[in-house]
From TrEMBL:
Record field: catalytic activity: a primary alcohol + NADP(+) = an aldehyde + NADPH + H(+)
The organism's place on the tree of life at top rank: Bacteria
Entry protein name: alcohol dehydrogenase (NADP(+))
Organism: Streptomyces tubercidicus
GO molecular function, one term: zinc ion binding
Similarity-based family: Belongs to the zinc-containing alcohol dehydrogenase family.
Pfam families per the UniProt record, alphabetical: ADH_N, ADH_zinc_N
């Protein structure tokens, strides 16, 4: 991995770095050079070591969420690396620190949610600034972690515990916090019965985290094909949702169901698995609306909710929790020239359970 090259662009000094980008919607990703801003007083330059591949990266570069985006798009919001340089007024980090960057790199810092540590739900004019395919405070497009270096404000970086390898830490910045946040919010723990729908990139982290929290964990998957994996990861039970008997046997069982699946499921059937006052939390983002019958909710005071990643404080809490309990993502490390192949394998569910790019190969 070469050192970043400084050059003048648009009257400002930028750092030029290598990256992989989608040049247009649905186009294969290819190697390009992108600008990174010079360090501000509170910025840190991160030498990216690993970048995870998230399903949302694929949705974005293939324009599957109805927005063509600001191409070329450099995806990647699961970033693990080492601080290379710090700005003049940085106090949180110093060169050599192990750090991560998740799904956003800035927010308004002034709204009630930001002040409460819920930056992921920022309601200010700036809004939540995504790590890629967004517009930053400086008016420039953000580029993500499929690159050799990134510059971020110190307040939006996370410290990665020494006990977590950097490659296996990368997916925690999205998949890890996406599951930790609802499990913590709805108080998964001893005496609670938690179901995880889907055993994929998100679901496998849900099983690990819920188990470490002390909950009784059940995986609800379309088939029993991954049952051995589910039990190895910490599940107490594993059921196939393709079997109608599952919904009869487990009726009224769970305090909490976290649905990681992006396909359109019959939520009314899953709501039938909740106890009185139980909650189904939707994490996956299916293409079509999710119809819910009123009487799937009313008789037992059940709830359906949504959740999205976590704020900076909660994400740090998640990383520390994973460090204390020895939790990491199950990963397959790839070279950058295999990104397009990895995308196809993600779409075919042919990965257990997250791809991570070795950015030294960019």
């Amino acid at each position: 991995m070469g050192h970043p090259e400084r050059r003048i662009l648009g009257g400002m000094t930028h750092t030029s770095v290598s990256a992989y980008a989608a040049p247009a919607p649905k186009a294969p990703l290819e190697r390009i050079t992108i600008p990174r801003r010079e360090l501000g007083a509170h910025d840190i330059l991160i030498d990216i070591k690993y970048a995870g591949i998230c399903h949302s990266d694929i949705h974005t570069v293939r324009a599957e969420w109805g927005d063509d985006g600001a191409f070329p798009i450099v995806p990647g919001h699961e970033i693990a690396g080492v601080v290379a340089e710090v700005g003049a007024e940085v106090t949180r980090y110093r060169a050599g620190d192990r750090v991560g960057v998740g799904c956003f790199v800035d927010s308004c810092r002034e709204c009630a949610n930001c002040l409460a540590g819920l930056e992921q739900y920022c309601t200010g004019e700036l809004g939540n600034v995504g790590t890629y395919n967004a517009t930053g405070r400086d008016g420039e497009t953000t580029y993500g972690g499929y690159s050799t270096h990134i510059v971020v404000d110190e307040n939006y970086a996370l410290r990665i515990p020494e006990s977590i390898p950097l490659d296996a830490a990368a997916p925690l910045l999205c998949a890890g916090i996406t599951l930790y946040s609802p499990l913590a919010h709805w108080q998964a723990g001893p005496g609670k019965k938690v179901a995880v729908v889907g055993l994929g990139g998100l679901g496998h982290m849900g099983v690990k985290i819920a188990h470490a929290m002390g909950a009784e964990v059940t995986v609800l998957s379309q088939s029993l094909r991954k049952k051995d994996d589910g039990l190895r990861l910490g599940a107490d039970h594993y059921y196939a949702t393709s079997d109608p008997a599952t919904f009869e046997e487990l009726a009224g069982t769970f305090d909490l169901i976290v649905n990681t699946v992006s396909a359109n499921l019959d939520l009314n059937a899953y709501l039938g698995l909740l106890r009185t006052d139980g909650t189904l939390v939707q994490l996956g983002a299916p293409e079509n609306p999710l119809p819910v019958a009123a009487f799937a909710l009313i008789p037992q005071r059940k709830s359906i909710a949504g959740s999205m990643i976590g704020g900076i404080q909660e994400t740090q809490e998640m990383l520390d929790f994973c460090g204390e309990h020895g939790l990491t993502a199950d990963i397959e490390v790839i070279t950058a020239d295999r990104i397009n192949e990895a995308y196809e394998r993600v779409m075919a569910s042919d990965v257990r359970y997250r791809f991570v790019i070795d950015t030294a190969t960019i």
